[in-house]
Write a structure and sequence with these properties.
- The complex is a heterodimer of chains A (about 350) and B (about 180).
- Chain A has 9 helices and 13 strands.
- Chain A has about 350 residues and is of the alpha/beta class.
- Chain A has 2 domains: about 40-135, Tubulin Binding Cofactor C, N-terminal domain (Methane Monooxygenase Hydroxylase, Chain G, domain 1, Up-down Bundle); about 140-340, Pectate Lyase C-like (3 Solenoid).
- In chain A, strands 1, 2, 3, 4, 5, 6, 7, 8, 9, 10, 11, 12 and 13 form a 13-stranded parallel beta sheet that branches.
- In chain A, helix 2 (about 55-75) packs antiparallel against helix 3 (about 80-105), helix 2 packs parallel to helix 4 (about 110-135) and helix 5 (about 140-150) crosses helix 7 (about 170-180).
- In chain A, about 30% of the residues are buried.
- A 6-stranded mixed beta sheet of chain B has the order 2-3-1-4-5-6, sandwiched between helices.
- In chain B, strand 2 and strand 3 form a beta hairpin.
- Chain B is globular.
- Classes of the chains: A alpha/beta (about 350), B alpha/beta (about 180).
- At the A-B interface, helix 3, helix 6, helix 7, strand 5 and strand 8 of A face helix 1, helix 3, helix 4 and helix 5 of B.
Chain lengths: ~350, ~180
């Protein structure tokens, strides 16, 4: 029995150990395979997603940065002007970076999160603006306030050329700007004003605040500005670029040009030679006729100005306040041929 | 590779940009556009409405929108703001009387939310005219140094001679490209 028992137990033992090892091994192997597969899948999945593109990551980063900026805003010492400017600058940059971060993250955020984040951005921005207004009050109309300061400067500074004026500051530039218009006439009444070709050759000419005057410009300026004119007669040679008319009443304007831009003008007759198109804006009772003035040398001046004497689109007027196609604008008309002025020597005030 | 990266790569492939050109009337917007595109500039009329040009430059496809600057058209500018990558602000450097107007219009534009991401290029145009202000003077008058919300640059140019137009546009392209195409 014993032998048998031994005989029996050995194989049994073997069998037991075999099964004890065998069964768990296959299970283990399968388990191992399963785990490996899961691991592999996870790795694949992880490699496909980027940590930065999770809303959790976004929310925590965004909030951390937001809090940091808020703290900077509330706790920084703004008593020293230079330091305060620097801090504000830094905050501005950080807010911009945060905005960029938000913009970059928009694609994977939900609508709600985007709205929330944008609201916080706005809050940050407005508290920064408040702070800036408080710490570094902005000169509201820098232009004028500085202008006042500029007038205290000694008079000669007005004669500086624009190049040197440019480094003095914007206000002075604009101030000087008007006086640098060496060319043109301003603030005159009941006068005959004449300029010759060499005075206006390729210059920016300004005629402003004239009443009851007769102006003749025998030459070709680069641009002609006509501003605040009443009851005047203005004749000019070929203008190589544009003529700018603003606030004109009861006047007669005569010139060739490349473009004519007319604004806020009423009851004015324009004898024009225009090689592109004329436009009117906020005008009433403007009447057009073809250019008829002539003076010795005007043909050469057409060449200098680069205008084609044979191309006159004086009837092509665009009214920017009348965009309806088909119906003509009520703001301008053509002067009937019988009413047109043909001789320019004895007309108007003198 | 994240979705965002894929989208950026797609946009990169297209390499398309939308530029919006604005400024007061008579600043020379249309002239700049036509000159840049190699067209005749002597017959340009004041813009009633807008012009669009699509052109290839340095491998980019540029859609340039040039909108009329007359006072009565300015209220329509906002219709063109959407998805603008670059804003080109054109200034007539010789028109001293209206520089203040010009500054106001520009500062209003920069508050516009839909232009918040756009790069700003200021062209101080008409530098060929003897009476024109330098680009530094324009920068001063327009208070450009106060702009903190946009990347900006000012370039003195002449649309008639074509001087510096390329310099300006190249800067604009580099800035935009750095922002939208190579952010990864």
């Amino acid at each position: 029995m014993a032998a048998l028992g031994v005989e029996v137990t050995v194989p049994k033992d073997d069998g037991e150990t075999n099964t004890a090892v065998n069964v768990p091994e296959s299970v283990l192997r399968r388990d191992q395979a399963r785990l490996e597969e899961a691991e592999r899948r996870r790795n694949v999945k992880e490699s496909q997603t980027v940590k930065e593109e999770k809303s959790d990551f976004f929310t925590s980063t965004f909030n951390a940065e937001k809090t940091a900026v808020e703290e900077m805003l509330s706790s920084s010492n703004f008593s020293d002007r230079d330091k305060a400017a620097k801090t504000l600058e830094e905050i501005t940059v950080r807010i911009q970076q945060l905005q960029k971060f938000l913009n970059d993250s928009m694609l994977f955020l939900t609508q709600y999160e985007i709205r929330q984040a944008q609201a916080s951005m706005q809050k940050l921005q407005s508290s920064l603006d408040e702070k800036r207004d408080l710490v570094l009050p902005k000169k509201k109309f820098a232009f004028r306030s500085r202008n006042a300061g500029a007038t205290k400067q000694p008079e000669p500074s007005k004669q500086t050329t624009d190049k040197s004026a440019s480094d003095v500051g914007g206000t002075v530039v604009v101030d000087a700007a008007i006086s640098v218009y060496q060319c043109g006439f301003s603030n005159a009444e009941n006068q005959v004003l004449i300029m010759q070709a060499e005075e206006i050759q390729q210059k920016d000419v300004l005629l402003s605040h004239l009443t009851n005057c007769k102006v003749k410009l025998y030459g070709c300026p680069s641009t002609l500005h006509i501003k605040n004119i009443r009851s005047c007669e203005i004749l000019c040679g070929p203008v190589s670029s544009s003529v700018f008319v603003d606030q004109c009443t009861d006047s007669t304007l005569v010139f060739p040009c490349q473009q004519l831009r007319t604004h806020n003008t009423t009851a004015t007759q324009i004898y024009v030679h225009v090689t592109s198109r004329a436009i009117i804006e906020d005008c009433r009772e403007v009447r057009f006729a073809p250019f008829t003035w002539t003076y010795p040398g005007i043909h050469d001046h057409f060449k200098v100005a680069g205008l084609d004497p044979d191309r006159n689109n004086w009837t092509d007027v665009d009214d920017f306040n009348w965009l309806a196609a088909g119906t003509p604008s009520p703001n301008w008309t053509v002067i009937p041929e019988t009413e047109r002025i043909s001789s320019w020597d004895f007309v108007g005030p003198s | 590779m994240g979705l965002l990266t894929i989208l950026k790569k797609m946009k990169h492939k297209e390499r398309e940009m939308r530029l919006l050109m604005l400024g007061l009337d008579n600043a020379g917007k249309t002239t700049i556009l036509k000159k840049f595109n190699g067209q005749d500039v002597s017959t340009i009329s004041p813009t009633l409405g807008f012009n669009i040009e699509t052109l290839e430059h340095r491998g980019f496809k540029l859609n340039i929108w040039d909108v009329g600057g007359q006072k009565s058209l300015r209220s329509y500018w906002r219709n063109y703001f959407e998805s603008t990558d670059g804003l080109v602000w054109v200034v007539d450097s010789a028109d001293r009387l209206r520089l203040e107007d010009c500054r106001k219009e520009l500062s209003t534009l920069l508050l516009e939310e839909r232009l918040a991401g756009a790069t700003l290029l200021v062209f101080a145009n008409k530098q060929d005219l003897p009476g024109s202000l330098s680009k530094d003077a324009i920068r001063e008058v327009l208070a450009l140094d106060d702009i903190k919300t946009h990347h900006w640059c000012i370039v003195g140019c002449s649309a008639v001679t074509g001087e510096n137009l390329l310099t300006g546009v190249d800067w604009l392209l580099d800035d935009i490209a750095a922002r939208i195409f190579t952010a990864d």
